[in-house]
UniProtKB/TrEMBL annotation:
Transmembrane segments: 6-23, 51-71
Highest taxon of source: Bacteria
Name of the featured protein: Integral membrane protein
Chain coiled-coil ranges: none
Listed Pfam families: NfeD
Keywords, ordered alphabetically: Membrane, Transmembrane, Transmembrane helix
Membrane topology of this protein: Multi-pass membrane protein
Organism (species): Streptomyces viridosporus (strain ATCC 14672 / DSM 40746 / JCM 4963 / KCTC 9882 / NRRL B-12104 / FH 1290) (Streptomyces ghanaensis)
Residue ranges occupied by any NfeD-like C-terminal domain in the UniProt entry: 85-142
Subcellular location: Membrane
SUPFAM superfamilies the UniProt entry points to: NfeD domain-like (SSF141322)
Length: 143
């Protein structure tokens, strides 16, 4: 039984697609698209072996050259989700008990926190709004 070249290209594309799913390497997906393009050249345009390999190489290389930088740029621009105490930095709080360089209490994100003034010479009175600049252990540093 003689199998046409386009079918071999599709088998190769499927194998590359499986590899993509298993390894999560996007380059394999781009090579799979190149193999599909070579299958199209073989099946619809009766392209010879050289034309098929050239189309595979050109399409795969072009996809890798164009898509990878775009994907890397998007990956680098992804906003980082702040969690835990990092999410509290920069938030506003209300003073519940006078806060100075030695301590006090604030209401931050619906919870009561111990707090200390960033500037030891500064004091914040009950009801004032303060900004949380850092968290040290279980104490919010405010200004």
């Amino acid at each position: 039984m003689d199998i046409d070249a386009w079918l071999w290209w599709l088998i190769g594309a499927a194998a590359l697609g499986i590899g993509l799913v298993i390894t999560a390497m996007p380059e394999l997906g781009m090579l799979a698209v190149g193999a599909v393009a070579a299958a199209v050249v073989s099946g619809f345009f009766d392209g010879g072996a050289v034309a098929q390999v050239v189309v595979f190489a050109v399409v795969s290389t072009a996809l890798i050259a164009v898509v990878r930088p775009i994907a890397n740029r998007h990956r680098a621009q992804r906003p980082q989700l702040a969690t835990g105490v990092d999410a509290l930095k920069g938030r506003q709080a209300v003073v519940l008990e006078r806060v100075d360089g030695s301590g006090g209490r604030i209401k931050l994100a619906g919870e009561v926190w111990s707090a200390r003034a960033l500037d030891a010479d500064r004091a914040y009175e009950v009801g004032q709004e303060v900004d949380v600049v850092d968290i040290e252990g279980a104490t919010a540093i405010v200004m």
